[in-house]
Design a protein that fits this description.
Layout (H helix, E strand, L loop, with lengths): L1 E7 L5 H10 L4 E4 L6 H6 L1 H20 L13 H25 L3 E3 L3 E3 L4 E4 L4 E9 L3 E3 L12 E2 L1 H5 L7 E5 L3 H13 L2 E5 L13 H13 L3 E3 L6 E5 L2 E7 L2 E4 L2 E4 L3 E3 L32 E3 L10 H15 L13 E3 L5 E5 L2 H6 L4 E7 L4 H6 L5 E7 L5 E7 L3 H13 L4 H5 L10 H10 L10
Length: 460
């Protein structure tokens, strides 16, 4: 079997690359040993956000009482909730399969690994020859010393999303994106949640300003979620009342289930890298150049397999970039302007530089903020926590970055991402008429504040 391109891995990077390459006239085979859509669609982004949306209803039912509307106490049918979640996933998997078929992509649902230059060996015994090979094998949850997923008390994110039970006491090891999102979901479901983060602050490694983090931490505390930073899990002990995690100095935390969410590792092992002379780095990432090519001619890598933020849309963008380059076209890709959305309560979304990072880089900046509490729409929604923040170059007024913490931040960041990616100015945003009353007005108002001409806030 001969193809222009063979892609190993059908996650957001692999299947998007396959569709675009086929649209551009290339013959493409997509090889995936599990379900189409990869971790994101089946055990990550989609089920997490589906459960985030579902459990938000529990919170809204409680809020409704303050508005004069009362419901009976919500009853959680875990089996039905899980079935609904699986239905969402199934619909999207089927849709992905239909799109691949409609675009003429050949799909093999089997395991594939490199077998020398231009060749992929399939677990069926067949081999595929291709002019170019794209590795898009994704990543897997990390274990830490003393804590293994083989322990029945320890969950991975996959286990947590399976919705087998609602533990009375849930201990999360890891205060990153995955841990905080799952903490939000299980707290709403009724678990008593404690988060341990060994670093000085939650969401380590993400370029967020202290004000944003502080706003989230206050909200987590108000929701009853305990956050302990500078706290490492040392060991686990079995007791008659369940597992107890030692955290040093004689201190310990008891739990019914322990969710290990300390990060993910690239799936670079056992995919045949050695057959073409590729050596992953010490963390398992596959080094690539600006064209996403590995050290082996004709072999490329995208998504979680390569350095950079482990975001589904980053992998998709790399797939589109690669497809364009294969036919001599250009698809711009600037890693500094890739947005991120974190589904906590309140949500956090960001794009570009934080105020702190911009100043560290020596840039002269101006900053504008606008609180949700001053938005009529937010007041009507009873969603007044949070703020919009814009950071711009002081001279040119070009928008450098935006952070939004508050309701629907994940959707609201799109306008800011468009502005940052296209080098738009604060004036462009401030002078653009926004519908009223809406939440997007907050970005316009923040731009006005940065320019010193705020209408609905006091200029400082």
């Amino acid at each position: 079997m001969n193809y222009n391109v063979a892609i190993i891995g059908a996650g957001p990077g692999g299947y998007v690359a396959a569709i675009r390459m086929a649209q551009l006239g290339l013959s493409v085979i997509l090889i995936e040993e599990n379900k189409l859509g990869g971790i994101c669609l089946n055990k990550g982004c989609i089920p997490t956000k589906a459960l985030y949306s579902a459990t938000k209803l529990i919170e809204r039912a409680e809020d409704a009482q303050a508005m004069g509307i009362e419901f009976t106490t919500p009853v959680i049918d875990l089996e039905k909730l899980s079935s609904w979640k699986e239905g969402v996933i199934s619909t999207l998997v089927d849709g992905t399969a239909a799109l691949l078929k409609a675009n003429g992509v050949t799909v093999y649902q089997t395991r594939g690994r490199l077998e020398g230059t231009g060749r992929v060996a399939l677990s069926t015994g067949k081999t595929v020859d291709a002019e170019r090979i794209v590795l898009a094998t994704g990543s897997s949850p990390i274990e830490i010393p003393g804590f293994t997923f083989a322990d029945p008390h320890i969950w991975s994110s996959d286990d947590a999303l399976a919705l087998r039970e609602i533990p009375r006491r849930l201990l999360l090891i890891g205060g990153g994106v995955i841990g905080l999102e799952l903490a939000t979901i299980y707290n709403r479901l009724g678990s008593k949640v404690t988060i341990l983060e060994m670093m000085p602050e939650i969401l380590p490694g993400i370029d967020l300003d202290r004000r944003t983090i502080a706003t989230l931490k206050r909200a987590l505390k108000a929701q009853g979620i305990t956050v302990r930073v500078n706290t490492a899990a040392k060991s686990i002990e079995e007791t008659s009342e369940g597992p107890v995690v030692q955290i040093g100095d004689g201190d310990a935390v008891a739990a019914d289930r322990i969710l290990l969410a300390v990060g993910r590792r690239p799936n670079s092992a056992d995919i045949g890298l050695e057959t073409v002379g590729i050596e992953p780095d010490r963390r398992g990432f596959v080094p690539v150049d600006k064209k996403l090519q590995t050290s082996a001619p004709g072999v490329y890598a995208i998504g979680d397999l390569v350095p950079g933020p482990m975001l589904a849309h980053k992998g998709s963008a790399e797939g589109l970039n690669l497809a364009a380059s294969f036919v001599g076209q250009n698809y711009p890709l600037d890693y500094q302007t890739i947005p991120q959305a974190i589904f906590t309560d309140p949500e956090i979304a960001s794009v570009g530089l934080s105020e702190a990072r911009a100043r560290e880089e020596g840039q002269d900046v101006i900053v504008g903020r606008f609180p949700y509490a001053a938005l009529g729409k937010a007041q009507g929604m009873r969603e007044t926590q949070g703020f919009f923040q814009v950071v711009a170059d002081a001279k040119s007024k070009r928008l450098l970055g935006t952070q939004i913490v508050g309701a629907e931040a994940s959707a609201l960041i799109a306008e800011a991402a468009l502005a940052v990616q296209n080098g738009l100015s604060l004036e462009t945003i401030a002078d653009s008429v926004h519908a009223h009353p809406t939440l997007p007005e907050g970005l316009k108002e923040a731009a006005e504040a940065a320019l010193g001409r705020a209408i609905h806030a006091v200029n400082r």
